[in-house]
Write a structure and sequence with these properties.
Elements lengths: L4 E8 L5 H13 L4 E8 H5 L5 H9 L2 H13 L4 E4 L9 H7 L5 E4 L13 E2 L2 E2 L9 H5 L7 H16 L8 E4 L2 H9 L7 E3 L18 E5 L8 H11 L6 E4 L5 H10 L5 E5 L7 H5 L1 E6 L9 H8 L4 E3 L29 H15 L7 H9 L21 E4 L14 H11 L6 E4 L10 E4 L1 H4 L2 H6 L4 E4 L8 H9 L3 E5 L8 H20 L1 H18 L4 H9 L2 E4 L2 H8 L2 H4 L1 H4 L2 E3 L17 E5 L10 H14 L4 E5 L4 H8 L3 H4 L2 E5 L17 E10 L2 E10 L28 E9 L1
Parallel strand pairs: 1-2, 1-3, 3-4, 4-7, 7-8, 9-10, 9-12, 10-11, 12-13, 14-15, 14-17, 15-16, 17-18, 18-19, 19-20, 21-22, 22-23
Antiparallel strand pairs: 5-6, 24-25, 25-26
Helix pairs in contact: 12-13, 18-21, 19-20
C-alpha cells in the first residue's frame, strides 16, 4: 500500500525551544509510517527580509511569501493529512485559510494558549491572567502584553481575532494538547472538548547510566523568560547560598541581559550562564548536576525539562503550575509515587531513589510510541482519510450504502454522479457499497442499485435488516425527508447528511444569480406570465421559507455528520450559527465529490475547449451561456476546437445544426461517454513507390517528370466515424485506397 503523505508545518521563533525539539522529534517518528514533508518558516526570514516595516507588519496579517511557498508545495504534492504546530507570528493566518479549504484532515498541535491569550502563556505582570481567554483581546492591548508594546499588541490582537473568525480554533479535525491541565484551559478558550486529545511530548534518547557518586550541582534548562521564573530562581539561590554548589542556567532568551547584570552586580559566582547548547551536546552539563529545577510561574503545558532530567537520573523540583505536577511527576515538595523528597537536595539516598523512579517513568515516553498514540486522533491508523474521513471510524466501518429518496434512471448515468458516484468510490477503496432509491425496478438498472418502496425508507427495522454501518443520505437537507433520517438514526446506523447543490441553501450569498437563473428556466418552460408566477412561488417557498424551517434544521441535526462539497457553502453555514444552532455547526465537514480514479494526464495538451455537464439543466448548467461563449471564443481563436460531453437536449443539437459550416465543424457533440475504452484497430502495412527523372533545360532550370503508386497494398481504413456527432480524430490508417499519380515540376 502506498505510504500516506503528511504536511508538517512549523513556524520557528528566534530561539530554539521545546516546540522546535518536539517538531523535529515528531517528524522523525512519523517518518517510519509515512512520507513527511516539513514546511518551516522562521521569524528571522520575515524580519530580515528586504520588505519595509509597514509591509512586514502587513505580513503578520497575511504573509504572501508563505502563501506562495505553501501553494507551490500543494501543487507539487497531494497530502493525506496536515499537522500544524504554530503559525504565530511570522506565518500569518493564511496557513489556516489554506488548511480549511483542503479535503485532508488537519491536526493542530497546541504548544501554548494562543487561542485565548496574546502572549500564549496566560501570564502577565508576575501573576496568572485569563482576561482574554474568551476571545476578547482588548485587555491584552491595554496591558501591552505582546512585546510590552501597545502597537505590537494591537497587531497581535488583529491576527488572533482573524484566526478565531475563520474558525481555526473550532473547525479542524483534531487538536492535540500535551497535558491534562492544558486541555482544561483550551476548552475554556472555545476549542471543542470532543476534538482535543492529550498526547504528552516524547523523547529520543535512551536513559543515561547511573552516576557513581551523588552529585550536588543544580540545573535549570529552558528559555530565559519571565514566565519561566528564572529571575525568582536566581533570587532564591542568592538567599540560600548553598556552599560548594553551582547553579547552571542552560538556555537563552530575552531575560539573558538582565540576568547577566544581576549576577554580576551581586557577585554571584556560584551561578553559571551557559547560553544555548545544542540538544545533542547537553549531556556534559546534565551529567554534572544531581538536581534539576523547573520554577515556572505560568500554566506550563508540559515541561520537557522533566523528561530530559529523568533520562539522566536527575530528580526534579517543580512548581504547582500547569501540567508539571499533573503527570504523576514531582510536586512542589519533591514527592513522587509516595517517596518523600522534601529533603532530596540534602539526602543522597533520596536522590538515588528518585533517580531510579525517574528513569523508569521516562521509558514510558519513548518516541516510537508516538505514531500509535496519534492514530486515534484522525480515526485511521493508516492516515487514509483525504476524501472520506467518516468512513475510517475507530470501529472499522467497512459497509456503507448511499441513499437518494427520489427516483432516477438506475443505469450508468446515475453512478457517474451524486450518491451513485459515492457508491462506486467506496467500492474502489474496498468498502462494500450499494445505492438505494425508492420505486420499483426499472429496465437497465445496474446490480449495485437497490429499489424499494418509499415506506421502507421510513422504517428503522428495514434499515437494520441491511446490516450496514453507515449511510450517506443525499437528500439536500429538505425537511420532508426528516422521517428517513430519523429511521436511519433509530436503526443505529452512522448517518451522513450530504448537501449538494449548495448554492440553493444560501440566498444571502448567492441570491441574485440564483433568482436570475430560476426566472430564466421558468419563463423558458412556462412562458413569460406563468413562468413569472412559478418563479415567485418557488423563490418564496424553496429559497426563503424552507431555509429557516424547523423540519430542515431537525433533518440536518439528525445526522452524525453534515457534509458539503464546496468550502464557501460550508463557511456560509458555519458563519450563521445563530440560525442553524451550535449542534449542527459542530458536525460540519468538507467532503468533495469523488472523481473517477482513471482520470490522469494522457499526453500533450491540445487546443480543445472541453465542456461537461447535464445540459438540460437550465438553472445551474446554463447551456445558453455555454453556446454564446463558444461562438465568441472560437471566432477569435481559429486554431481552437470544442467538444461538448454529457446529455445533449434537442435545443443544443438544433443550435449546433444552425451554426455556419466552418464553426460547426470545429464544435464536436460527443454526448455522454460512460467510460473511456481502448479501441483495438486492425494492423496495417503501408507501401508507396515514386519514380522521377530530371531534364536540364537552360542553365539552372530543370524539368522533373515523376510517376508512382500510393498504398500499394490497399491498407485502407474503412470504419471512419460519420454523422453530425462524428469523432474527427478517429484516424489510424490510410484514408485513400490504392491510387496512381503522374506529375512534373520545374525548378530553378
Amino acid at each position: 500500500m502506498q505510504r500516506p503523505r503528511i504536511l508538517h508545518i512549523f513556524s520557528r521563533y528566534g530561539e530554539v525551544g521545546g516546540e522546535e525539539i518536539c517538531f523535529h522529534a515528531i517528524t522523525e517518528a512519523l517518518g517510519a509510517i509515512a512520507d513527511v514533508t516539513p514546511f518551516v518558516y522562521s521569524t528571522e526570514e520575515l524580519f530580515h527580509s528586504p520588505h519595509g516595516a509597514l509591509t512586514k507588519m502587513g505580513y503578520l496579517l497575511h504573509n504572501r511569501d508563505v502563501e506562495q511557498k505553501l501553494r507551490k508545495c500543494l501543487r507539487e504534492n497531494r497530502y493525506d493529512a496536515w499537522i500544524i504546530h504554530n503559525t504565530f507570528p511570522a506565518m500569518s493566518p493564511c496557513v489556516y485559510e489554506l488548511a480549511l479549504h483542503q479535503p485532508a484532515p488537519v491536526i493542530h498541535y497546541m504548544h501554548n494558549y494562543r487561542s485565548g491569550c496574546l502572549n500564549g502563556v496566560f501570564y502577565r505582570d508576575g501573576a496568572p491572567c485569563f482576561s482574554c481567554q474568551g476571545g476578547n483581546y482588548f485587555p491584552g492591548i491595554m496591558h501591552a502584553c505582546w512585546r510590552k508594546n501597545a502597537a505590537y499588541s494591537s497587531l497581535a490582537a488583529a491576527v488572533l481575532y482573524k484566526t478565531r473568525r475563520m474558525g481555526a480554533w473550532s473547525r479542524f479535525s483534531s487538536y492535540i494538547a500535551i497535558s491534562r491541565r492544558q486541555r482544561e484551559l483550551l476548552i475554556r478558550t472555545g476549542i471543542p472538548e470532543d476534538k482535543i486529545r492529550v498526547i504528552p511530548h516524547f523523547i529520543r534518547q535512551n536513559p543515561a547510566p547511573a552516576a557513581g557518586q551523588p552529585l550536588r550541582d543544580v540545573l535549570y534548562a529552558g528559555r530565559l523568560t519571565q514566565e519561566k521564573g528564572v529571575l525568582q530562581l536566581v533570587q532564591a539561590w542568592e538567599l540560600l547560598s548553598p556552599p560548594g554548589r553551582i547553579l547552571y542556567l542552560m538556555g537563552d532568551g530575552p531575560l539573558r541581559g538582565e540576568l547577566e547584570r544581576y549576577i554580576s552586580s551581586r557577585h554571584l559566582e556560584s551561578i553559571r550562564l551557559t547560553g544555548f547548547i545544542p540538544h545533542e551536546e547537553q549531556g556534559a552539563v546534565r551529567a554534572a548536576c544531581g538536581l534539576s529545577v523547573a520554577p515556572s510561574l505560568w500554566e506550563e503545558t508540559f515541561g520537557m525539562v522533566v523528561l530530559e532530567s529523568w533520562l539522566h537520573g536527575t530528580p526534579v523540583i517543580v512548581t504547582p503550575n500547569g501540567g508539571l505536577p499533573r503527570q504523576e511527576w514531582l510536586d512542589c515538595t519533591g514527592t513522587s509515587r509516595g517517596i518523600p523528597g522534601g529533603d532530596a537536595a540534602h539526602r543522597p539516598e533520596a536522590r538515588r531513589t528518585l533517580a531510579v523512579h525517574g528513569r523508569a517513568r521516562a521509558t514510558t515516553f519513548v518516541l516510537h510510541i508516538l505514531p500509535r498514540r496519534m492514530a486515534p486522533v484522525h480515526g485511521s491508523p493508516s492516515w487514509r482519510t483525504p476524501r472520506f474521513p467518516f468512513i475510517f471510524h475507530p470501529t472499522n466501518i467497512m459497509k456503507w450504502y448511499t441513499c437518494t429518496p427520489v427516483s432516477f434512471k438506475g443505469d450508468h448515468t446515475f453512478f457517474s454522479r451524486d450518491s451513485g458516484a459515492f457508491c462506486k468510490a467506496f467500492q474502489r477503496i474496498g468498502v462494500e457499497s450499494r445505492a438505494i432509491m425508492p420505486t420499483p425496478a426499472q429496465e437497465g438498472d445496474e446490480p449495485d442499485l437497490i429499489r424499494t418502496e418509499y415506506a421502507n425508507l421510513e422504517d428503522p427495522a428495514w434499515w437494520k435488516s441491511l446490516g450496514i454501518d453507515g449511510v450517506i443520505l443525499y437528500a439536500w437537507g429538505v425537511g420532508k425527508y426528516l422521517p428517513i433520517a430519523r429511521a436511519i438514526h433509530d436503526a443505529g446506523i452512522f448517518l451522513v447528511v450530504y448537501m449538494d447543490s449548495s448554492g440553493l441553501f444560501f440566498p444571502w450569498q448567492y441570491w441574485l444569480p440564483i433568482a436570475k437563473n430560476m426566472y430564466t428556466k421558468d419563463v423558458f418552460i412556462h412562458g413569460k406570465i406563468k413562468g413569472s408566477a412559478f418563479f415567485l412561488l418557488r423563490l418564496l417557498k424553496q429559497h426563503t421559507w424552507n431555509l429557516a424551517s424547523r423540519g430542515r434544521r431537525k433533518h440536518l441535526d439528525s445526522g452524525d455528520m453534515v457534509t458539503f462539497p464546496i468550502p464557501s457553502a460550508l463557511q456560509s453555514v458555519a458563519d450563521r450559527e445563530w440560525l442553524y444552532g451550535k449542534s449542527i455547526v459542530r458536525k460540519l465537514a468538507l467532503v468533495p465529490n469523488p472523481i473517477s480514479s482513471t482520470c490522469r494526464f494522457a499526453g500533450e495538451k491540445r487546443n480543445i475547449i472541453m465542456a461537461v455537464g447535464r445540459w438540460d439543466d437550465l438553472l445551474y448548467k446554463r447551456p445558453g451561456l455555454l453556446m454564446s461563449t463558444l461562438e465568441q471564443a472560437l471566432v477569435h481563436a481559429p486554431e481552437w476546437e470544442a467538444e461538448i460531453y454529457g446529455n445533449l437536449p434537442p435545443f443544443l443539437r438544433e443550435w449546433h445544426g444552425n451554426l455556419p459550416q466552418g464553426l460547426r465543424s470545429r464544435i464536436h457533440l460527443a454526448g455522454y461517454i460512460p467510460e473511456d475504452r481502448e479501441e483495438k484497430t486492425p494492423d496495417f502495412f503501408d507501401l508507396n513507390m515514386k519514380v522521377a527523372y530530371d531534364f536540364p533545360l537552360y542553365k539552372s532550370v530543370t524539368l522533373q517528370v515523376n510517376a508512382g503508386v500510393q498504398n500499394i497494398l490497399e491498407a485502407y481504413q474503412s470504419d471512419f466515424d460519420q454523422g453530425k456527432d462524428r469523432d474527427s480524430k478517429y484516424i489510424y490508417g490510410p484514408g485513400m485506397p490504392r491510387s496512381y499519380f503522374v506529375g512534373c515540376k520545374i525548378s530553378y
